[in-house]
Amino acid sequence: MVIKVFLATSSGSTAIKKKQQDVVAFLEALKVEYAQLDIACNEQNRMWMRQNVPEEKKPSNGIPLPPQIFNEESYCGDYETFFDAKEDNAVYSFLGLAAPPGSKEAMQADEEQHIVENGTHADESNEEGAADDSIEVPEGDRNGDAHGEAEEGEGVEADELAEPEENEATEGDEEGHAEEDGEQEEEELRQLEDEEEADVEEEGEEFLEETREEVAE
Question: How far apart are CA 90 and CA 109, in angstroms?
Fold first, then answer.
């Protein structure tokens, strides 16, 4: 592929001459093969250039000014777009050529490709992780430990609730036994009192009897 540079060798504009010189000098520095096509002395070149510059790239008057750059039949751009590509280390891409190994543009392209690949792998890993997270787990298996702990907790609570009832029952039995023991003690005391009263009465009757007998004598 040959790069075509349309320029005007007999242009009276110093600015145009300067732009043409910059483009040619940079292409020579890069050792890019190119061809100079003069539009000042060749009407055919001038007409071809005007016809093949895209309409959106033409100035308001419809007449594009040199330098205009093509890769064979493909339009690359004018001086302004060429200058921007040079500032961005993207001249080979601007010209539609492969950057030679070891050039700044080639190394920059490798770095960008490396970043894109790493970003793609990272996105795939994130998607796989998200897919794993999105797998539904049966409700019965979900939070199994929590359910087991909850059931154990319920069993403990039931035991704790049952213990007070047992304690209450034990206390009730103890109170019943205490009441029975108290009643039994009271009954024994009554029996002792009755026996003492009976003994006192008996002794009193014996004393009266003895007194009568003494009086009778």
Answer: 9
Walk along the chain (217 residues) and give the pLDDT tens digit of each residue.
799 999 999 988 999 999 999 999 999 999 999 999 999 999 999 999 999 999 999 999 999 999 999 999 999 999 999 999 999 999 999 999 999 998 888 888 888 888 888 876 556 666 666 655 555 556 655 555 555 555 555 554 545 545 555 555 555 565 555 566 656 666 666 666 666 665 645 655 665 565 455 545 5
User: b/e string for 5-27 if b means 16 or more Cβ within 10 A?
Assistant: bbbbeebeeeebbebbeebeeeb
What's the whole-model pTM score?
Answer: 0.53
Cα angle, residue 9 at apex, residues 5 and 12 outer, rounded to 5°: 125
- From 59, 2, 5, select the one nearest 32 (Cα to Cα): 2
| Residue pair 127/133 in contact by the 8 Å Cβ criterion | no
Going by their DSSP bridges, the two strands 3-7 and 34-38 should be labelled as: parallel
- Output the six-digit token pair for 67: 């330098």
The angle that helices 79-87 and 14-29 make with each other, rounded to 10 degrees, is 40
Q: Which amino acid is present at 12?
A: G
For residue 97, report the phi and psi dihedrals to the nearest 5 degrees.
-115, 155
Spell out the residues 6+ positions from residue 74 whose beta carbon is closer than 8 angstroms to its own.
96
